[in-house]
Amino acid sequence: MRETRETTRSVCPGARAARGFTIIEIMVSLVVIAVLISLVTVGVRTALRQSKNTSEQFMASGLRSSVEQFKNEFGFLPPLVNDGEPLGTADGGPIIDDPRRNGFQQVAVRSRAFMVARTGAGAVDTNIVGPVNGYSGADSSFSDKRYSKFSLPFYLMGECGARHEDNDAVIDGVAGQGFVTPSRDGRFDPRGRKHEAFFTPQSASLLKRQYVDPLEFEEHDGAPGSNLDGDPSSVALLGIRDRAFRYYRWENLEPLDASAELGEFMNVPKLLQDPATWADPDASSEVSEYRAGSYAIIGSGRDGVFGTEPVRVLEAALGTTLSDPNSATAVAELRKRAMSDNAVEVGR
Q: Tell me, what's the pLDDT at 36?
């Protein structure tokens, strides 16, 4: 018997009884796994957001290149289309009767005076550029109407989207993409040669026909009413949140005098300036880099807002609530945050 016990001890020297994981060890492991999962999830979400914003910036860059091709081809920038409401009267665009060609229609475009946005005395025309309900408060917004949603599809792609009701004539002279030679006043010359589209979106879904943007009406202190179907000629290029790219046009003036501030003769859109300076019509600290600029292409970014919409719209889009919406400083910071992810391309 002694011999058997000794043999057993020699086979398993120092052996311990087997044991399982303790509850504490299991809980620690679960916590570590949960942390890793949350980190991976946050990383994926961040990557997706960055990817979407990058794709919109890439599209804005492509649109700018196409605008430059247009300018090189014809010697002028694409005209600024009068979109109609809420940027003008309902019967003011984007397609109107052509007074020079009876029975035909043309694209309604803005004049140089509109892009200057100054009165004869040099003051800003508040019908074109100005705050709505002040610079603070839940309903405050900033209305800068020197842009079009339809210029880019019309003049880079030939997507006017409308035919004359009497003779079925295509306004840009080419059915589908492409167009005949345009002129500075927005007309397409039927005697001109045909041109291929300068820009084609990667996905057909990015081209929206009968486009209407309810938030745009609120931005300019209006209401779209119950009819949100849109006109057949309302053709827009959409960004990642289904809001149309905007094509801004402006013209800078000569200095009023030798001591004039840049802001006194520069008409740079507010979306290219720091919101904290919007209340100062002569502010120049934020516009010097655009001194040679004359157009911009801007997308709303992943948050779906440009930054000029009413404060309550920005709060909803950004998931925040201002403790004091009447604080001009707090409102300016909110607008700056909303503008931070805009896709922006500026050209001259």
A: 80
